[in-house]
Amino acid sequence: MDLLDGLNDAQREAVTTTEGYVRVLAGAGSGKTRALTRRFAYLVGELGVLPSNILCVTFTNKAANEMRRRIRALTGDNDTGFICTFHSFCVTLLQEEAHAVGYPEKFIVLDNADIDAMLALIYEERGLTLRQMTFSDARDRIEMRKNKYEPRYYEDLIALPLDRLKEKYDRATEPADIIFYGYLYQEKKCFGLDYNDLLLFTLHIFDTDEEIRLKWQRRLEYVMIDEFQDIDKPQYRLMRALCAYHRNLFVVGDPDQTIYTWRGADVRFLLDFEKEFPGTRTIYMTENYRSTPEILALADSLISHNRVRAEKNLIPVRPASGETPVWFHEKSPADEALRIVRTVRALAGEEENFSDFTVLYRSHFISRTLEEVFLREKMPYYIYSGTQFYDRAEIKDALSYLRLVAFRDDLSFARVVNRPKRNIGERRMRALREYAEKNGCSLWQALRVCAETELFAPTQARAFLRLIEDCAERAGKAPISELLSYLLDKSGYEHALRTEGDNNRLDNLAELKQAVYEYETTCGEETDLASYLEHVALYSAADDGTSRNAVRFMTVHTAKGLEFPNVFLVSMSDSIFPSKKTDSAAAMEEERRLAFVAVTRARDRLFFTDSEGRGHDGDYRYPSRFLLEIDRPLLSREPEPDEALLRDAAQAAAQSEKLLAAREGTTEFAVGERIRHAVMGEGTVVGIDDRQGAYLIQFDILPTERRISFKVRLERV
DNA sequence: ATTTTCGAGATTTTT
DNA sequence: TCTCGAAAAT
């Protein structure tokens, strides 16, 4: 099969330009993933490059799985090398190299829930309240600090012995310091690395160990990156490092689909690419193969309301379908759901291909009402995003049991010690923590001592201890799947779920057991517990629901990169989409790009729904300003909403836009910007306190941040 | 005195 | 679904 078959000129160019720096500016639905896949196959098939010498970075692991499947179909080769996210790549790299910098090669990848659990502990220990700082703020603060202090952060802190770290934590007085050192202490204690660390730590290794860096740089002959508009600074630095030897770099992105700036993504990496990489060849892919002209016209009309934007039109390739996208205006969220069910029934016809229909929403909580109605109407559905398989409570519990057996770490201990209930609640946990603190030991060791005391008499602590020790002994001999079944059975975990009648969770556990079993049988050699747990960190999304005949639900963010025949965009009310937390003109433009992403997912049909009534804050809900912005003839309304309502909605939207514009004026600087103060010198804006009218600024010469009023003159550096 | 249970209220987006 | 607070249960 010719790899260039059925490609247009731009795609052909993208596939065959294999040397040097290449940037592809690709519109939605222009076949960029296709070009990327073909390019990979071209490198392997035509140029004879080893797959393991190619790094192909995707945005999600799901996308990586999909691409791997397609490449396998093209090349017939099972070895597809590194097709993964930056984070997965770093996990692999660190497993090989972490010991070189004195960190154990066994580590646990921490997610936000894990971090929050640690923060909760620190807050309680040091009397901090959520009013002072929410967990999410604290996480941001920690992240910012790691970025700032690094590489000193790794030299001083990660490589620092645990007790010295604890000293720093104990001595800290400022909340910012307490949180930072407390977190590092907790992190180190349980062999944890968070998402940030994976990248920063890898970069640190590259900075300090030239040999390791060269080894990887030489190895990766070709680097390709998808969804480049959503890459953040650490990822950018890693990319720069990785391609520095062979200088073959290929990036693909669409500025109009930048939807992760809240996470540190910066579209300038894509726009200013040629400044950093002189001689860059830029390829434009503007033809759209995915959607009908009707849908594309609507998408264009929507995104054209963004002011900060490089003009770029989508050129439809498909013929007109004659179906104008529809806006269903309903009375209540339940009516919205009902309308969707009816529309699906009408369109699915006799074959009932429900999986051709996808419902997109701005945020997870929207799915609740939908679920209720779908359940009542007996319409099958499948929630694609939300808590992913490995994020589900019961799965994390089960894995924590395994982790406890392998590591005896505090994090896993705290998670499962009272699950199922063993009468070890707050009071006894505190006693354990105090004991562990005083004796410098782990919670596990603390329980071993305390289990004999009066305080723990009414608990099942002893049985718990015996179970884990028993399993640790079995761990070497029995396969992991058996160990897991044994744990879930003897711990009473499954029994508790059964008495609660929670079949869903039981099913998930069964699925996990199956996944473990498959891992054992396919993975052959390395099937000890520790390497399985590492494997789990890399692996995600066991069941993606594609096989089920059900309507798919997901957030717009998860839908990125996917396409569907029929799309419903629900809850299109102002304050939901755009979110009411949108607090700047720039953020509003991002909301609009998000809506653009949602719209361009649709191949054949597109529907919007919104409803009247009040939100939970009691405010009256107006139709989303995005719906009102779209050129009238491009969107048919059913029924035509009340004229007064439309007028009020337009007015409210205009009011809010004015407010955003005004606020833009008051805050001259954005978070992350470098400034100079007449007395204190240079610093970085780390936060904006609207209520007090002040910036939070971390000055270079001061240990902690300062509050500086908007009125004080600052210069941009 | 502690733990558990039960009901009410709230929710941006995620590697 | 998840978290939080108050009441019930041990």
Mean pLDDT: 84
Tell me what portion of residues adopts beta-strand conformation: 5-15%
Biggest sheet features: 7 strands, parallel
Shape: globular
Count of helix runs = 30
Structural class, from secondary structure content? alpha/beta
Output the radius of gyration. Answer: 27 Å
* Cα distance spanning the termini: 56 Å
Give me the oligomer status: single chain
Question: Percentage of helical residues?
Answer: 40-55%
Annotation keywords:
six-stranded parallel sheet; DNA-binding; globular; alpha/beta; seven-stranded parallel sheet; single chain; 717 residues; 48% helix
Q: SSE layout and pairings?
A:
Elements (H helix, E strand, L loop, with lengths): L8 H8 L4 E6 L5 H14 L8 E4 L3 H15 L6 E3 L1 H12 L10 E3 L1 H15 L8 H15 L2 H7 L3 H10 L3 H15 L2 E3 H14 L1 H10 L2 E4 L7 H10 L6 E5 L14 H4 L1 H4 L4 E5 L1 E2 L4 H11 L11 E2 L9 E5 L2 H16 L8 E5 L5 H10 L4 E3 L9 H15 L2 H7 L9 H14 L3 H8 L10 H15 L4 H11 L2 H8 L2 H21 L5 H10 L12 E5 H4 L4 E6 L15 H15 L2 E10 L13 H5 L6 E3 L4 H24 L7 E4 L3 E9 L4 E6 L6 E4 L4 E3 L1
Parallel strand pairs: 1-7, 1-8, 2-3, 2-6, 4-5, 6-7, 9-10, 11-16, 11-17, 12-14, 12-15, 13-14, 15-16
Antiparallel strand pairs: 18-19, 18-22, 19-20, 20-21
Helix pairs in contact: 1-2, 2-3, 4-10, 5-6, 5-9, 6-9, 8-9, 10-11, 10-12, 15-28, 16-17, 18-19, 18-22, 20-21, 22-23, 23-25
The chain binds a DNA duplex (15 and 10 nucleotides) through helix 4, helix 10, helix 20 and helix 27.
